[in-house]
Write a structure and sequence with these properties.
Distance between the termini: 44 Å
Helix content: 55-70%
Shape: globular
Number of strands: 0
Strand content: under 5%
Radius of gyration: 18 Å
Number of helices: 11
Length: 224
């Protein structure tokens, strides 16, 4: 059902928890324990929501800051940080928090890469997340590529899949980013530190395609 309707966040959340245990969520937790910032995140257990982040304050940050990039992405996509489901099916308390942290940081991954929430963008981001985190749900979500239009599938395999594998494998573990402490930092500087290159702007590509289709339609209607 998650593949048929990738906008059912509750089903995707359940799939993520059911497939993360017993091994993969422990691997991600151990990656945090092996990193000083990851250990601090596990100790403090911060949460990301509109109650812990001041959205108006983020909008007032410099244009190329991490916080501004994040809130601009939220505004552009019409997304709220309060939509992430609570973890229900992971018994280990620490591992449950790791999954919750991954879930609540997802929109920061979107902002960092610039990928939109359209199905094509979500599949590309899930490919990146799988290469970086090895959470099975992110890999399984890539099966949704079968539901894309032919041109979108070709673009995924020729452009976004290679980008996702290259950047997901070589970049640092993104679960260890303490986003709340990086909000005023230059977003390009953070990308360089993590080893992440932005992919081609998918929204701009889709916009150009729509404009080209509209132009060709008007030409046919005028007899050209």
């Amino acid at each position: 059902m998650s593949l048929l309707n990738p906008y059912r966040a509750d089903l995707i959340a359940t799939l993520g928890e059911a497939t993360a245990t017993p091994y993969f969520i422990y691997r991600l937790r151990d990656a945090m324990l092996a990193h000083p910032t990851g250990r601090r995140i596990l100790r403090l257990r911060p949460r990301i929501s509109s109650k812990t982040l001041s959205i108006p304050a983020l909008r007032a940050l410099p244009e190329n800051s991490v916080g501004r990039a994040y809130v601009s992405w939220l505004d552009r996509e019409g997304v709220s940080p309060d939509t992430r489901s609570p973890v229900r099916y992971i018994d280990d308390e620490e591992c449950a928090y790791v999954m919750q942290r991954y879930r609540e940081c997802h929109d920061f991954y979107h902002a960092l890469t610039g990928l939109p929430t359209v199905r094509e963008g979500e599949v590309a981001l899930k490919a990146f997340e799988f290469a970086n985190t090895l959470i099975p749900m992110t890999g399984l979500s890539m099966l949704a590529v079968a539901t894309l239009k032919p041109a979108e599938r070709r673009r995924f395999f020729s452009v976004y899949m290679p980008w996702a594998v290259k950047n997901g494998v070589r970049s640092k573990e993104i679960i260890n980013v303490f986003w709340e402490e990086e909000l005023e930092r230059d977003v390009d500087d953070l990308r360089r530190e993590l080893g992440i290159e932005q992919p081609p702007d998918l929204r701009e590509i889709r916009k150009r395609e729509r404009e080209e289709k509209k132009r060709l339609k008007e030409m046919r209607a005028n007899g050209f």
